[in-house]
Automatic annotation (TrEMBL):
Native organism: Opuntia streptacantha
EC number(s) stated in the UniProt entry for this protein: 3.2.1.15
Keyword match Nucleotide-binding: no
GO molecular function: polygalacturonase activity; RNA binding
Pfam families, per database record: PPR, PPR_2
PROSITE patterns reported for this sequence: PPR
Protein known as: Endo-polygalacturonase
Lineage of producing organism: Eukaryota, Viridiplantae, Streptophyta, Embryophyta, Tracheophyta
Amino acid sequence: SYNRAIESHIKSGSLACAIQLFDEMPVRDTISWNLLISGYKRHGMTREAIELYSQMVLQGVRENPSTFSSVLSTCSNSGFYLEGLQVQCRAISLGLTGNLYIGSAIVDLCMQMGLVGAGLRMLDMMPERTCAVWNLVLRGFCELGLWDEVLGSYPRIKSDGVELNELMLCYLMQGCGNGSFVDQGQQLHCHAIRAGWVETNLFVANALVDFYSACGSLGDAQQSF
């Protein structure tokens, strides 16, 4: 089928061939549009991906959750925030924000724009809060320098039944170091030791060094490394 051929060309790096096939299709369904949007995104052609999405909407093709997730992440990762807000409004109008992937993409967009309140409201509305979406929130707090909020999120993360992973620990350690939360950082260090991450994950080891350095404990920083 056309869609399988387009997907094959995109995976092999032949975007021009995929575009040609797309243009030749007598009928394009949602999957066809999604494939080419993802193809543009994969090749770093952000503007083209967003423009193609606009054409999709103008031609009356109904998006699905994959469409919104892809376009929203494209907008947030490339700084097309106004376009991202427009896509977000459309997802809300279609009642699709309960979808895990769309909700996560909206949270990410809001946090990257510094719209913390909006991002947290979206987080509250999500039927399930996963490790991935919490990492997006923690990353946003760290980028904005909201160190109290970083550490303050941890009890709620645990109450959501989300298990700490290496990336989450790195964000929490960054919050502890910059916020001078020494006791909490040391507790997280113990968790990392029990999980075996200090020896196996370079990012965790570096996060520990940064934490102890920020707290003025250079000896502990050297031991961590």
